[in-house]
């Protein structure tokens, strides 16, 4: 809630200061500073949201999401920035919006008709291509759930959700957890609700948070050859049960697209691409998650940007931020 008072009304200012939240005031001031940079008014198609959080060293980080459109008929440019400095995060957001320049983009997934990622980029002059370099094959897991006392089921991807539930699992009462909003959204299609959602793109951090908050055995539906980043954060592997429900296979793609920016959505896509084609020095690379980033490093790609979140908006923010 915000209140606007007369500048010289010191009595009311003193009374309201009792219920004032300093953190919210700081966030609001950052939002207003950015709006002022754009000359923002009620009629402008612009949105700003700021949130301050503590990092692992208990230092404050100011995270800012913005959406700015030229007019009401054009999709907005969505940009995310973070900094430990209030002034720097304001400057970074405004400068990034000024320097946005349309480019060609290739994402290693098939595009949908209602694809927000594609639509928001193309609406701002970008050329977008999307082709997955892998096929997914379901693997039967019946009679392979060893521990009948499972308390949690943790999903790291939409594919894990799909190939787990479509085999009609016979489970007792369990709780569900998900890596990211997109995975949690996929679960809802099967009538399951995530009681834990890891929102960070730091998979190890999510693993530590989840491991410290649960007891009992956790089932992990996953791909064959999974890197098991979440599971490795558990102090005891006695609380972990892996369940392979699908595998990825190389897809035959006649010709890989040419693009200024390449967004890799999984380690498997990185492997297939890098075995078929060498990245050019001037190409800019984005990785969806730390596991994908680590695979890029193994393939000799040292410089890449990590997405801020795994949903379409987070992917678009990464492209606009290049």
Overview of this protein structure:
The chain is an alpha/beta fold and 322 residues long. The protein folds into 3 domains: 10-98, Porphobilinogen deaminase, C-terminal domain (Double Stranded RNA Binding Domain); 104-133 and 251-320, Rossmann fold (3-Layer(aba) Sandwich), CATH 3.40.50.10090; 137-248, Rossmann fold. 31% of the residues lie in helices and 25% in strands. It is built from 10 helices and 14 strands.
The CATH topology of the largest domain comes to Rossmann fold
State the order of secondary-structure elements, H for helix, E for strand.
HHEEEHEHEEEHEHEHEEEHEHEH
Tally the beta strands. Answer: 14
In CATH, what is the class of the largest domain? Alpha Beta
Terminal CA distance reads: 35 Å
Helix content: 25-40%
Structural class, by secondary structure, is alpha/beta
Q: Walk across the major sheet and give the strand order.
A: 6-11-10-7-8-9
- The poorly predicted ranges are none
Q: What Rg, in angstroms, do the CA atoms define?
A: 22 Å
Mean pLDDT: 91
Q: Describe the largest sheet.
A: 6 strands, mixed
Give the overall form.
Answer: globular
Strand percentage: 25-35%
């Amino acid at each position: 809630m915000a209140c606007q008072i007369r500048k010289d009304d010191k009595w009311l200012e003193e009374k309201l200061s009792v219920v004032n939240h300093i953190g919210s005031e700081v966030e609001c001031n950052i939002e207003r500073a950015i709006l002022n940079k754009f000359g923002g008014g009620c009629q402008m198609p612009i949105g700003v949201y700021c949130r301050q959080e503590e990092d692992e060293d208990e230092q404050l980080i100011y995270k800012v999401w913005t959406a700015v459109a030229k007019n009401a008929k054009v999709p907005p440019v969505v940009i995310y920035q973070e900094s430990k400095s209030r002034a720097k995060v304001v400057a970074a957001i405004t400068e990034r919006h000024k320097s946005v320049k349309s480019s060609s983009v290739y994402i290693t997934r098939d595009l949908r008709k209602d694809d927000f990622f594609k639509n928001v980029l193309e609406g701002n002059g970008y050329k977008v291509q999307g082709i997955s370099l892998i096929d997914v094959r379901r693997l039967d897991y019946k009679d392979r759930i060893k521990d009948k006392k499972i308390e949690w089921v943790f999903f790291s991807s939409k594919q894990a959700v799909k190939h787990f539930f479509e085999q009609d699992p016979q489970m007792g009462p369990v709780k569900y957890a998900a890596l990211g909003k997109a995975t949690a959204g996929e679960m809802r299609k099967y009538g399951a609700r995530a009681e834990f959602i890891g929102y960070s793109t730091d998979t190890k951090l999510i693993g530590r948070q989840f491991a410290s908050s649960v007891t009992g055995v956790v089932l992990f539906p996953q791909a064959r050859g999974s890197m098991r980043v979440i599971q490795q954060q558990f102090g005891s592997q006695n609380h972990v049960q892996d369940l392979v429900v699908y595998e990825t296979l190389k897809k035959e793609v006649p010709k890989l697209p040419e693009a200024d920016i390449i967004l890799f959505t999984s380690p498997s896509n990185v492997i297939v691409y890098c075995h078929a084609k060498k990245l050019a020095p001037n190409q800019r690379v984005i990785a969806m998650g730390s596991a994908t980033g680590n695979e890029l490093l193994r393939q000799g790609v040292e410089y890449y940007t990590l997405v801020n979140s795994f949903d379409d908006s987070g992917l678009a923010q990464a492209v606009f931020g290049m």
